[in-house]
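Lab notebook, design round three. We kept the backbone fixed and only want residue identities now. Task for the bench partner: fill in a sequence for the structure below.
Input structure tokens:
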């Protein structure tokens, strides 16, 4: 709860910097004060994140309007991100992300290993609305930019240690040093660990624990007025946390296993493969000042990650619905920009290239239904994309500016999908003893191209340096693809000989691009002589051809199975408002050096499907009246009271934050068991900083009321195909749609945590 400077939304500065600090953001790929940017963007400095005790990227979602950032169901490090109703929950290959995650300007193509831990960070920016005329990859919902610190010019050593409840023990060492006048080297090593919030009562493993090693290394050349700046950076993380087991919300229909008392306990018996997530990458950023008004930038990157996850859907010892999974992702990208800053004209033109491979492999084991029955899927869905883009701002007068941008994207998606039934055990890939049963139900290669031009235009009026009024229109686009879980044998079309051809299978498994037309008006202002900062935005979005992935129970070759169902079933409209403000309280009533601030955020969104076509009994049916937009609460809000007072020659920072989210639907089909009603979270901190910032120590509390709240889940229970209402059996419990126990499993946000963090700086 560090004290924010008034020239930004949620960005924060230390007490000494409170009055005149200006945190610079790069939302438009050039350095600007946040108030000058005609975009809805929230920026959080490293100082603010440290003061809040922020642990990872998901903490940002609680204090950003109309934004959801959560750890995906059944994982420890895969990210589910939604902004203004647009996102992507499904982490399997074949589905592009609706919200772009950037690490030092490098787009992360897949959500695995994207729950980035917060250490050695300069700032995090959250941009709401379509992005594409300024950023390498087109993103339809928004972007989250994670920016690490550049190296200082002098030797620096920073030690941070944390100890807390649930056996939390963390350490971060950051060191850098100059080598001559132009060369600097540095790096960080982080050990992040915590005991479980509960236990797996079958395997004996801790549940919801954390076991992570991570590191970053950087070499910088130039800068400091030199015409060339080169930054070579690398990062590595290894997550060996135990599998995250879900909590059953209903007794076992076959075993009668009761519901556990502790929501963080689980009974899932699947232990293979061993949970292991490894991610690493290299990036080369080069900036060359060609002239006083022209700058050339190059961003080259390579990344790779692998994830092994045993996901026990039914959360019981038996293999009623067990899904061992593995994900292998690799990408190379190249971006080139030419930036211009020539008097009234500023902007850039750019080129972007991405070549990414995404392989997903998983079993679906239904041993209690048919002994040893397994459906194995091996799906490789690769992406190659090119784009040219540009965005220019022209100052029509000293107060009025016009920005025009556009992007043309060429996306190519190639898929190789194999689905094979096994009998007698799991698939050989996951160490099972199963024997192939019949011919593959899916075995095809697909290839699709998706091209699109997306424009953006905005006008900004600044009557003075403390006020910005703007209006904008932008179009977002997300390419189509192939559902890796679909079953080609279930494709409805046959040729004259009664044979399904590859084109029919490909058409059955593919889905079209989706697009959004987004309109926004906004106001940003410093009022009351700097005593109040306000940022307001109103938006309307027309969302068409919405891609709706899902998983359902099905029959393949006369055997029960698990199938993907993806369609462009939806048309939706989103409209809402967002507010962020920072008020200085008690001006003139407190002692010299004391600061009291109230920071607030408020988001409202009306997210409504206008059309939602699904197949019911072979008849296309519009069920929009019975569907909801997932992971998009109608109301989001937060309020922070931050107080700083001198203590000796140092300072004491006291803060508390209350955040609120209204009812959240986990999927498009409402489910009274796993949907989360509205809830509030209370955090607080006390931080003492020594003179000269030489050391600090802080006491932090997260979720102090110990609120239990669901963040995601799995459901395979019988439901009315139109309304989605659960079908109950004679015992009053939901019936099972897949497996014999019934799958109704939830995952929860972190319980109360209290920890102490100490930092020493040399």
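Proposed sequence:
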């Amino acid at each position: 709860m560090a004290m924010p400077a008034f020239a930004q939304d949620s960005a924060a500065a230390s007490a000494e910097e409170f009055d005149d600090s200006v945190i610079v953001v790069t939302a438009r790929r050039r350095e600007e004060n946040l108030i000058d940017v005609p975009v809805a963007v929230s920026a959080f400095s490293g100082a603010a994140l440290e003061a809040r005790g922020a642990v990872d990227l998901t903490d940002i979602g609680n204090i950003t309007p109309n934004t959801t950032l959560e750890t995906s169901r059944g994982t420890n490090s895969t990210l589910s991100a939604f902004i203004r109703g647009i996102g992507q929950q499904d982490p399997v290959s074949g589905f592009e992300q609706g919200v772009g995650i950037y690490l030092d300007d490098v787009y992360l193509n897949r959500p695995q290993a994207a729950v980035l831990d917060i250490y050695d960070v300069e700032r995090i920016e959250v941009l709401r609305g379509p992005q594409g005329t300024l950023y390498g990859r087109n993103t339809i919902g928004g972007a989250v930019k994670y920016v690490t610190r550049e190296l200082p010019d002098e030797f620096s050593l920073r030690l941070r240690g944390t100890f807390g409840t649930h056996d939390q023990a963390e350490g971060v060492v950051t060191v850098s040093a100059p080598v001559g006048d132009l060369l600097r080297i540095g790096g960080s090593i982080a050990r992040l660990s915590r005991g479980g919030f509960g236990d797996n009562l079958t395997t004996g493993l801790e549940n919801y624990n954390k076991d992570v090693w991570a590191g970053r290394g950087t070499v910088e050349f130039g800068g400091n007025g030199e015409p060339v700046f080169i930054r070579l950076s690398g990062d590595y993380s290894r997550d060996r946390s135990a599998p995250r087991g879900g909590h059953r919300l209903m007794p076992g229909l076959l075993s009668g296993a009761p519901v556990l008392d502790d929501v963080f306990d689980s009974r899932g018996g699947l232990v293979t493969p061993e949970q292991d997530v490894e991610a690493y990458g290299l990036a080369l950023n080069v900036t060359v000042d060609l002239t006083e008004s022209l700058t050339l930038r190059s961003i080259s990157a390579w990344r790779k990650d692998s994830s092994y996850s045993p996901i026990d859907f039914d959360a019981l010892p038996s293999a009623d619905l067990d899904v061992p999974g593995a994900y292998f992702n690799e990408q190379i990208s190249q971006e080139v920009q030419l930036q211009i800053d020539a008097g009234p004209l500023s902007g850039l033109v750019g080129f972007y290239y991405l070549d990414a491979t995404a392989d997903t492999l998983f079993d679906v084991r239904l041993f209690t239904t048919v002994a040893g029955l397994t459906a194995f899927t091996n799906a490789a869905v690769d992406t190659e994309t090119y784009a040219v883009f540009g965005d220019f701002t022209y100052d029509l007068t000293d107060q009025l500016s016009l920005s025009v941008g556009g992007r043309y994207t060429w996306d190519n998606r190639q898929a190789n999908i194999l689905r094979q039934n096994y009998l007698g055990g799991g698939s050989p890939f996951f160490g099972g003893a199963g024997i192939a049963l019949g011919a593959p139900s899916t075995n095809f290669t697909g290839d699709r191209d998706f091209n699109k031009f997306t424009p953006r235009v905005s006008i900004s009026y600044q009557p003075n340096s403390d006020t910005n009024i703007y209006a904008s229109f932008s179009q977002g686009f997300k390419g189509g693809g192939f559902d890796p879980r679909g079953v080609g044998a279930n494709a409805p079309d046959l040729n004259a000989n009664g044979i399904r051809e590859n084109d029919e299978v490909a058409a059955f498994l593919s889905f079209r691009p989706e697009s959004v037309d987004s309109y926004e008006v906004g106001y940003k202002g410093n009022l009351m002589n700097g005593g109040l900062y306000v940022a307001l935005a109103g938006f309307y979005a027309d969302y068409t051809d919405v891609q709706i992935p899902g998983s359902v129970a099905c029959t393949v070759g006369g055997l029960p199975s698990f199938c993907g169902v993806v369609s462009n079933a939806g048309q939706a409209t989103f409209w809402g408002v967002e507010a962020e403000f920072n008020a200085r309280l008690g001006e003139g009533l407190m002692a010299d050096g004391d600061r009291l601030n109230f920071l607030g955020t408020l988001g409202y969104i009306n997210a409504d499907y206008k059309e939602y076509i699904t197949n019911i009994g072979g008849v296309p049916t519009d069920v929009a009246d019975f569907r909801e937009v997932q992971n998009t609460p109608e109301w989001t809000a937060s309020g922070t009271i931050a107080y700083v007072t001198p203590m000796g020659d140092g300072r004491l920072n006291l803060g508390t934050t209350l955040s609120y989210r209204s009812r959240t639907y986990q999927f498009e089909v409402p489910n009274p068991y796993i949907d989360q009603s509205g809830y509030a979270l209370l955090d607080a901190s006390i931080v003492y900083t020594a003179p000269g910032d030489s050391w600090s120590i802080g006491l932090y509390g997260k979720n102090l009321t110990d609120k239990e709240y669901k963040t995601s889940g799995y459901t395979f229970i019988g439901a009315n195909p139109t309304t989605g209402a659960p079908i109950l059996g004679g015992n009053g419990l939901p019936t099972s749609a897949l497996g014999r126990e019934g799958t109704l499993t939830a995952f929860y946000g972190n319980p109360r945590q209290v920890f102490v963090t100490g930092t020493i700086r040399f």
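Keep this in mind before ordering anything: Residues 1-23, 494-500 have pLDDT under 50 and may be disordered.
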